[in-house]
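Run log // design_07
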């Protein structure tokens, strides 16, 4: 079956999980997509000292409700507890029934290793027969990550990312490489506007690329924009 996917870049309030969850829920309702992908650490902003979020956090209830109403799966970014004193930058998967940690970022950059531990393995989720490989930001720039994820038998490579406006071209470079190397769709949800963590102006320009590396949908640089396409 064709799969409609949206790459969203909602405005973000640093540290305010409840406010960001409400914005995520509104985005899910308006996106008109079976899968809605959000940027890295979208629930907290790129604040490396933000407290970990549990999958069962009651502040995420509005997103669960929105997914139940629309039949959507939402993939969003958050810091999570890894146990034994560790934390991870993660991708949460939320549908109309439950929330869970779908993937933990494997390749950390900048100051991230001072707070977080890397994930140990690639991951994919299955939606309506499609296998979506998961990635977070720097993962997308590491060919080994794409190769290891592609080995799971994926149909699309889906990532939440954060790049500064000056580095917006990085999104295209990485997406085209993944598509060319592995002949899969690529979906990048890219933070826009101010995100915390020193990013006063993030790139936005979330987009979806076909398996031939050609852009089929792209958002602008402004917060609140959404890129949507039907994979088939």
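design_07 sequence
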């Amino acid at each position: 079956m064709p799969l409609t996917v949206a790459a969203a870049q909602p405005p973000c309030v640093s540290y305010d999980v409840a406010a960001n969850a409400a914005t995520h829920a509104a985005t899910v309702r308006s996106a008109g997509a079976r899968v809605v992908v959000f940027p890295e650490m979208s629930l907290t902003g790129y604040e490396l000292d933000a407290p970990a979020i549990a999958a069962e956090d009651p502040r995420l209830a509005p997103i669960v409700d929105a997914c139940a109403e629309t039949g959507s799966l939402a993939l969003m970014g958050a810091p999570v507890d890894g146990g034994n004193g560790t934390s991870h930058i993660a991708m949460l998967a939320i549908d109309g029934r439950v929330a869970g940690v779908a993937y933990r970022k494997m390749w950390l950059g900048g100051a991230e290793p001072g707070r977080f531990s890397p994930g140990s393995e690639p991951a994919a989720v299955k939606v309506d027969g499609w296998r979506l490989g998961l990635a977070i930001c720097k993962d997308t720039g590491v060919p080994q990550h794409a190769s290891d994820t592609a080995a799971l038998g994926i149909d699309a490579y889906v990532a939440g990312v954060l790049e500064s406006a000056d580095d917006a071209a990085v999104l295209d470079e990485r997406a085209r490489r993944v598509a060319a190397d592995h002949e899969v769709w690529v979906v990048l949800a890219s933070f826009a506007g101010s995100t915390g963590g020193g990013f006063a102006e993030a790139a936005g320009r979330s987009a979806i690329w076909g398996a031939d590396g050609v852009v089929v949908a792209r958002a602008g640089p402004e917060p609140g924009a959404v890129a949507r396409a039907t994979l088939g």
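The longest helix spans residues 17-31.
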